[in-house]
Amino acid sequence: MKVLNKRHVLNLFLAFLCFNISYSAYSMLLDTESKKTTLSDYLLNNQVKYSANTETVDLKDLRLSDVKGISKVKVKDSELNSELIDLKDINRCSLMISNNLLVIIDKDIKDLKNLYCLDLCSNKINSLPEEFQHLIFLEILNLSNNKIYAFPAVITTLNSLKILNLSNNLLESLPDSISDLKNLEKLDLSYNKIKELPKKFFELESLQELLLSNNKISKLSKKTKFLINLRILDLDSNNLETIKNLDQLSKLQVLVLSNNNLQKIDDLQGLSNLVVLILKNNKITSIDCILNLNNLECIDLENNYISTISQDINILSKLRELNLAYNKIEEMPALNFTELTLLDISNNQLKNLDLLNLIKLESLILKNNQFKVWPSNLKLLKKLRTLDMSFNELDNIPKDVETLKKIMQMNFIGNKIKSIHCNLRNLKNLNYIYLLSNPISKLLFYMFNQDSQKDQEKLKQEFRDTFTVLYNLYQKKILHFYFFDDLPLEEIEKLPIEIRNIILGYFCDLF
């Protein structure tokens, strides 16, 4: 009798696995096909949802495979008990047909001339009929998450169009005729395969919001400067290595350039109205070139190669959020941002920090640095709600923490904390405190195994004071950690009975 070796067994198993996967996929396909329905079939037993207040017709999430005869549909508002009216007679109608199984749009769409908004997202559409050109009042068109390979030329005939969403499709280029959309204000082309924009594109002078994230753009055209009304530009996750031709976009307020290959930022000086600048996940080494952008309120430079920060950063007096996490910063100047509410300098190499005048700060994140001493002027942070000092080298919680009256969450995981010098019970808003993986969790075992009776008594007192505070917080469900996570149960059994009972009672409460 032939014996199967391991290779044969593995091959049989893989074949069986592939068969099951294929069969499951086939079953799912059959299931999808069986649940398809047409608009005419749906109308046999159902009334189309319609809101007279918003003039919205709702056909989304119905697994419709076609919408033939849609122009002949009659609707009524059941809540208002209105009479049946023709869909095509609704003034400024919004038609929602998202999340269905449409591949094509029927030609009788042309009769819905009063359409103001048409939502066709999350279908399987690959093209649009020429009859779309009759939708002369259409202002909003959503075709996101479909199967469109080529930009439908008929869209460029929609002269009233103000908002166009073609995100999550398969577009590689745009036609020159896109410049005919003279009233277009917002264009979302994110998650496509576009490498560059045609020259005619930059004639869209009404454009205010341009979303191009997750494409393959490697450079910006010199004609970008002609998008004079642009307020939001999103180029996240492209192939940009330099920033050029943006400095004349004087109305730009939001610029997103994260997840590219940028090494420097030296062409933003003219962006005098810029409020939000997102540059995370690049290779930037210096931020000096943005220090003249006086209206900045949010800067995100997470995960770059920045090692030094100039004192001049305090010039940005309107700053509300500053993220410098995951860089190589060893030293920070004294910070004097009177409007700052969020500061994240986590995952750097800081050893000290002067929080000079951060009077509105609500969230301070300094985890994974090299702090052995606490940041100075901590007691000035009267509005602080979240404090994260985890994974540093702190050996205590200082008395200044008592002054943080609005603090709600504190994280000290992974430090060297042995003592608490403040009365945490006075922090009435405190909801969470994390102290896992600190020496304080081993203190109990240590203090009852000292050779010196004097040291032992001192440690007993220190422990009792600390434990009383922490246990009280635990009972109020504020303390969230296994206090004695590093202490074996067999060692607990060796301890004096009054201490042992407290600990074992603590563990019983946990479970």
From TrEMBL:
<dbReference type="Pfam" id="PF00560">
    <property type="entry name" value="LRR_1"/>
</dbReference>
<dbReference type="InterPro" id="IPR055414">
    <property type="entry name" value="LRR_R13L4/SHOC2-like"/>
</dbReference>
<feature type="domain" description="Disease resistance R13L4/SHOC-2-like LRR">
    <location>
        <begin position="156"/>
        <end position="260"/>
    </location>
</feature>
<dbReference type="Pfam" id="PF13855">
    <property type="entry name" value="LRR_8"/>
</dbReference>
<keyword id="KW-0732">Signal</keyword>
<feature type="signal peptide">
    <location>
        <begin position="1"/>
        <end position="27"/>
    </location>
</feature>
<dbReference type="InterPro" id="IPR032675">
    <property type="entry name" value="LRR_dom_sf"/>
</dbReference>
<dbReference type="Pfam" id="PF23598">
    <property type="entry name" value="LRR_14"/>
</dbReference>
<keyword id="KW-0677">Repeat</keyword>
<protein>
    <submittedName>
        <fullName>Leucine-rich repeat (LRR) protein</fullName>
    </submittedName>
</protein>
<dbReference type="InterPro" id="IPR050333">
    <property type="entry name" value="SLRP"/>
</dbReference>
<dbReference type="InterPro" id="IPR001611">
    <property type="entry name" value="Leu-rich_rpt"/>
</dbReference>
<keyword id="KW-0433">Leucine-rich repeat</keyword>
<dbReference type="InterPro" id="IPR003591">
    <property type="entry name" value="Leu-rich_rpt_typical-subtyp"/>
</dbReference>
